[in-house]
Design goal:
Blueprint lengths: L1 H17 L48 E6 L7 E3 L5 E11 L3 E7 L9 H4 E8 L2 E4 L8 E2 L4 E3 L3 E11 L7 E3 L2 E4 L4 E5 L6 E2 L2 E4 L3 E3 L3 E12 L9 E12 L5 E4 L2 H4 E6 L4 E6 L14 E4 L3 E12 L6 E11 L23 E13 L6 H7 L9 E3 L9
Amino acid sequence: MKIKNRFFVVMLAFLIVGIPLVSFGQNQTITCPQNLICTPIPPQPAGCPVGFTCKLNIVGTDPNVAVLITNTSTYSPVAKSVLPDSNVLLGVFEITDMNKTSTLKSISFNIPVSGRLPADIFNNLYIKSGDKIVPADSISSNPKFSNIDKILSRDTTYTLAVYGDVKSNTPDNTKVYVRLNAANSTIYAVDSDGVAAKVTEQISTSSTTTFVGKVAVSNVSAKAESIDNGTSRPNLASINIEFNVDNLSNKDVFISKNPNIALSTSSTPINSIVGLKFATPNPQILSGDTAESYVIPANSSRKFSYLGVMLRPVNGGAVSFKISRLKYGFNSKNGLPEPVLATPNTNTESNTTYDFRNIGITYTLATSDDDNNILATRNLRDSLVASVFGFAKLILGF
C-alpha cells in the first residue's frame, strides 16, 4: 500500500507541475526569469539542430573578413532573339556579402561573341545596380567595370544587371552571352578597415542572346511532285518552296517581284530548274506594293511561294535546288529594292541580305527502270519521296 500511495503522490505532483506547460493550442506567455537576459533565437536554416543557431560556413575564411558569393539571378533573361538596339539586357547576376559589410569597387565579366569581337557589335557596355549605372572601362572580351562604390551590407544579396548598346549593322544570327568567373582577380571589394573581401570561386553564366537582322525568314516548307506525262515516264516535276518574310524593323522593307533579283539560288545539275516565279503572296495586295516590288510593312510578316519546274537530268539521278540568300532594301527606288552589294553577308541600312542557310529540296524523278511499271499502270506518281530539309526556324541559326 505504501508503494501505491507513493506512486499516486508522484503522479499528482507531475500533473500539477506539467499541466501549465501544455498549451492546448492557446498562445503561451514566456516570462524570462529576473536573473537572466533572454534573447529569442531567429529562424534557422533547414537542418540546423534544435537549440542551436546556424550560419553558412565558408571553409578556410576568417569570420571577420567579408566573403562574397555570386550566382546567376533567376531574373536573368532566358535564351532570346532580339533586334540590335540600345539598352539590351544581357544578363543578371547576384552578389551576396557574408560576415562583414564591404564596398564593391570593381568587377570583370567575360562576354564571348560568336565569330567576332565585342567591339564589333557593341557601342557601349554597362552595369546597373539600383539607380547606379557604371560603364565598362573598355569594350573587350573581358570588360572591367571600375569605380562602382556599391555598399554591400552583411548577409544581403544584391543584383547586377549587364546591358549593351548594340550596333544597328550587327550581322544576323550573332550570338552573345555573359559569364562571371567569380574570383579574387575579377571582383574587388573592401571592408571598412580596407581589407579586401574574399571571393568564393564560382562560374555563373547568362542565357544566350541572339541578334537577328532587320529581316528574318520563318515557316519554310518545300515539296516536289512529278508532272504526269501520259504513257511516258515523267521528265518534269513541279517544285514549291514557301516561306514567311518577317520584317522586324520599324521601316518598310521591299523585295523585287523578279525572283532572279530577290533571291540567290543554285541547282545541281546546273540549269535543271526553269520557269522560276513568285506565286501570289499572302496578303495578296498591300498599299505599298509597286509594279516591280512587294512590300513587307514595318513589324509585320508576309508569306511567299516560289514556284518552278524541275527537269530530268540527261543521265538520270537526283536534282537539288537551293535558295541561299534573300535580297531586300528599305527603299523602293522606282519600285525596285536598292542594289545589293556584291560582298557576302552585307548588312547595312540600304543594302541588305538575309542568309537562307541553303534551304531547298532534293528530288529524284522516275528512272528508266520504272518505265514498264509506268506504262502498265499509267499511274504516274512520285517514284521517290522528296527529301526536304530546313524546317527549323532560321532566326535560331539551324
